Amino acid sequence: MKKYTEMNKEELQALKKELDAQFAEVKAQGLALDMSRGKPSAAQLDLSMEMMDVLGSGDDLKCETGVDCRNYGVIDGIPEAKRLLGEMSEVDPDHIIIYGNSSLNVMFDSIARSMTHGVMGNTPWCKLDEVKFLCPVPGYDRHFKITEFFGIQMINVPMTPQGPDMDMVEELVSKDASIKGIWCVPKYSNPQGYTYSKKTVERFARLKPAAPDFRIYWDNAYSIHHLYDDNQDFLVEILAECAKAGNPDLVYKFTSTSKVSFPGSGIAAVAASKANLDDFRTYMQIQTIGHDKLNQLRHVKFFKDLDGLRAHMRKHAALLRPKFELVLDTLEKELGGLGIGQWTSPHGGYFISFDSLDGCAKAIVAKAKEAGVVLTGAGATYPYGKDPKDSNIRIAPSFPTLEDLEKAAQVFVLCVKLASVEKLLA
Ligand code: PLP
Question: What ipTM, to 2 d.p.?
């Protein structure tokens, strides 16, 4: 088929008529499908159900240091959970704090703490005239919502397949002391599924920020979330790289088992230098008497070690892979060569990033909604919900069944075609 951008007005009008008829047919089906959030499917959640039974009521519910996990105590995680999350994060357990059920919550807290109390003795951000964060775009909407909530000014930094534009990052952080952080999803990024290259990680570790309290918010949410056994991305470990570069305090590395066990009921952790973790602890010991140690114990008993985690992630991949492949095949078959969209083909994570013709994303999402398919809101992948080109859409294939996903993907490509034709005719 001819590229849409090479069609004349008559050809586009004829095409629009055809697409309008197809759209009316789809609408009449009264679909109610959801491709909006990166949630595991019910079948994925079923994979962890045995975890519900690993702690028998008659069992000794003590952790390896003899503390009764049913009671208060052990503020920063039982040792076996630190070991498990340490292996998952590729850091020494001594550099880990285990938190509660959500890493996003810990990111929010870290910003809140920096606002009210400052970072390691520096001026609290709330006392400064200006606080800024760098935001690689497109990125994770919930990161941007946190910085927006605290009134932190966000600066877009373009993403590349190797990671954020590091020339821009280096230039900005070295000159502007009001830049206090950067949001990063370094592996299988949300939404593009890109993994930062070795060079990018090395450049991050060697940053020379003007602000002593600048921190990299390294959200390694998808560290072991591969789709393929034989085609996995590799990410250089940032903490060791920062230490090597003489910048040990530069990074907070977040992780959780949300998309390993149960989202919202997993365990979260932060890895950082000892000085940073001590800073975290001063806040944490006022905030809580301790997190859920029974859940920590449950995770350790169920997964045991990194091999256990990896084996489990292979089961997730077996369920996720066909969904990614279905969406990618549909995009290729229906949109390939038409010149109206580009998309990523990740090796892991939860998302596919789609870029439409400029000025079409909102229309595509609105049309999909009209046809009964909910997509992540257009603009959500940018700070303040403002995509300057109105072109990026995040596709989340994990939650629907394969059958529903097939229908949703067909609706999506139809909406892309229709919105593109309308744009070209406008
Ligand atoms: N970070 C990223 C990049 C995510 O995509 C998500 C969930 O989609 C989260 C964090 C949420 O993590 P948690 O459930 O640990 O709060």
Answer: 0.99
